């Protein structure tokens, strides 16, 4: 029988390695603790289970959500509950922006199911279920998003293994929501097509090198060179055609207002921009300039 259970998981921002991680399997990603999703599972009378989420305007029987939310449908119907239930989601992670909303939702769901149904799944089993849900959502998923939303430190993801980087960089990261929906599934498939050609492969190799450089520069706390690496990564992501004119505009704005370097983060085609700032004051200046330039929201993280 199902008992009431609640679980919360936070969002993430990829520092570098989006797309190349699908092939090369290395990337760096940052958990964002202030952005999170909570799921509450409650037993209800009757035979029909429901899902409710105010921020995506969803209030429907779970049996009807497969086409739009294949990962959630899979998780919420995979285990025999012998009891109708309501799954209620509360989230402040904007969806389809590369901030890990889908990964956090998948992971919170399996964590809550694990409690509600006393499944006794290990941590690895829970992340495997969440990764499968992500594959259903996005086509092919590297596992990076799930690996980051269940951690509380900077993650260096290397072929499914996570190395944690405790050291801080001593800088600030401005995260700006472009207001344009990203589309990870489409972006991943666009890059996959290009990866068939030698030029596409060369772009992925370039990104892989930039991931390596980022890790080394972070450890040396060389924020100036790291900014240059961010800009280089953005150039490659643009060549791979996963940027967007509004993202390009926000990056330009951040860079002329004192950012050391900026790039898109996540699948792209919309979503968020991340921008490196030397100190909190510059971060505030960049954040204000980005809002004036049309960013829907901004967050500042000390890194
Ligand atoms: C674009 C991508 O690299 C990141 C999406 O947040 C896809 C993935 O890692 O599965």
From TrEMBL:
<keyword id="KW-0963">Cytoplasm</keyword>
<dbReference type="InterPro" id="IPR006204">
    <property type="entry name" value="GHMP_kinase_N_dom"/>
</dbReference>
<dbReference type="InterPro" id="IPR036554">
    <property type="entry name" value="GHMP_kinase_C_sf"/>
</dbReference>
<dbReference type="InterPro" id="IPR014721">
    <property type="entry name" value="Ribsml_uS5_D2-typ_fold_subgr"/>
</dbReference>
<keyword id="KW-0444">Lipid biosynthesis</keyword>
<dbReference type="InterPro" id="IPR013750">
    <property type="entry name" value="GHMP_kinase_C_dom"/>
</dbReference>
<dbReference type="GO" id="GO:0005524">
    <property type="term" value="F:ATP binding"/>
</dbReference>
<dbReference type="Pfam" id="PF08544">
    <property type="entry name" value="GHMP_kinases_C"/>
</dbReference>
<dbReference type="GO" id="GO:0004496">
    <property type="term" value="F:mevalonate kinase activity"/>
</dbReference>
<dbReference type="GO" id="GO:0005829">
    <property type="term" value="C:cytosol"/>
</dbReference>
<comment type="pathway">
    <text>Isoprenoid biosynthesis; isopentenyl diphosphate biosynthesis via mevalonate pathway; isopentenyl diphosphate from (R)-mevalonate: step 1/3.</text>
</comment>
<keyword id="KW-0460">Magnesium</keyword>
<dbReference type="InterPro" id="IPR006205">
    <property type="entry name" value="Mev_gal_kin"/>
</dbReference>
<protein>
    <submittedName>
        <fullName>Mevalonate kinase</fullName>
    </submittedName>
</protein>
<keyword id="KW-0067">ATP-binding</keyword>
<keyword id="KW-0443">Lipid metabolism</keyword>
<keyword id="KW-0808">Transferase</keyword>
<feature type="domain" description="GHMP kinase N-terminal">
    <location>
        <begin position="79"/>
        <end position="149"/>
    </location>
</feature>
<dbReference type="InterPro" id="IPR020568">
    <property type="entry name" value="Ribosomal_Su5_D2-typ_SF"/>
</dbReference>
<dbReference type="Pfam" id="PF00288">
    <property type="entry name" value="GHMP_kinases_N"/>
</dbReference>
<keyword id="KW-0418">Kinase</keyword>
<keyword id="KW-0547">Nucleotide-binding</keyword>
<dbReference type="GO" id="GO:0019287">
    <property type="term" value="P:isopentenyl diphosphate biosynthetic process, mevalonate pathway"/>
</dbReference>
<feature type="domain" description="GHMP kinase C-terminal">
    <location>
        <begin position="219"/>
        <end position="294"/>
    </location>
</feature>
């Amino acid at each position: 029988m199902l008992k009431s259970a609640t679980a919360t998981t936070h969002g993430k921002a990829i520092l570098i390695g989006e797309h190349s991680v699908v092939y090369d399997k290395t990337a760096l990603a940052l958990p964002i603790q202030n952005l999170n999703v909570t799921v509450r599972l409650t037993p209800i009378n009757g035979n029909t289970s429901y899902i409710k989420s105010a921020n995506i305007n969803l209030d429907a029987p779970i049996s009807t959500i497969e086409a739009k939310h294949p990962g959630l449908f899979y998780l919420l119907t995979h285990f025999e509950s012998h009891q109708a239930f309501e799954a209620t989601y509360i989230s402040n992670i904007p969806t389809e922006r590369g901030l890990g909303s889908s990964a956090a939702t998948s992971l919170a769901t399996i964590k809550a199911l694990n409690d509600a149904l006393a499944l006794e799944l290990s941590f690895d089993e829970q992340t495997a279920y969440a990764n499968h849900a992500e594959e259903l959502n996005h086509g092919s998923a590297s596992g990076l998003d799930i690996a980051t939303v269940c951690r509380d430190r900077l993650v260096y993801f290397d072929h499914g293994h996570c190395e944690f980087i405790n050291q801080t960089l001593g800088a600030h990261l401005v995260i700006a929501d472009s207001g344009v929906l990203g589309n990870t599934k489409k972006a991943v498939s666009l890059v996959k097509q290009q990866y068939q050609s030698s030029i596409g492969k060369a772009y992925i190799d370039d990104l892989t090198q930039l991931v390596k450089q980022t890790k080394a520069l972070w450890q040396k706390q060389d924020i100036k060179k790291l900014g240059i690496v961010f800009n280089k990564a953005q150039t490659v992501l643009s060549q791979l055609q996963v940027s967007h004119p509004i993202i390009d505009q926000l990056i330009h704005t951040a860079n002329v207002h004192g950012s050391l370097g900026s790039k898109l983060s996540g699948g792209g085609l919309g979503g968020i921009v991340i921008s490196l700032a030397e100190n909190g004051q510059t971060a505030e200046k960049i954040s204000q300039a980005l809002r004036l330039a049309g960013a829907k929201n901004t967050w500042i993280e000390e890194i």
